[in-house]
Amino acid sequence: MDDCIFCKIVKGEIPSKKIYEDDKVYAFYDINPEAPVHFLVIPKDHIASANDLNDNNADIVSHIFKIINKLAVELNISDKGYRIVNNCGEDGGQTVKHIHFHVLGGRCLHWPPG
């Protein structure tokens, strides 16, 4: 999508602090971190939200979780734990209409999140 900020990040039109990229996904640090480690993993293909997953594109979620696991180990948050967050829709707190997964770690994360 031409007006999607995450699509622009994937294309290199908007700078980001990349930590991982392959042919399917892009991972980068959040510009307003809520934890010592806070990054996002997004599919390169535009999928608006979890509501738009289907038989043709749902395999991207398993790939994203494999990459999250890899990055959690590399960033030393896997042993003590971390949180994976996906906001879906307006009431779910989704502000960018491109499915994405926040990964937060490096401190104790309380529940409920707020």
TrEMBL record:
Chain positions of motif Histidine triad motif: 98-102
Highest rank taxon of the organism: Bacteria
GO molecular function, one term: hydrolase activity
Catalytic site positions: 100 (tele-amp-histidine intermediate)
Every HIT domain range: 5-114
Pfam family, one: HIT
Record key words, sorted: Hydrolase
EC numbers: 3.-.-.-
Stated name of the protein: HIT-like protein
Organism of derivation: Clostridium chromiireducens
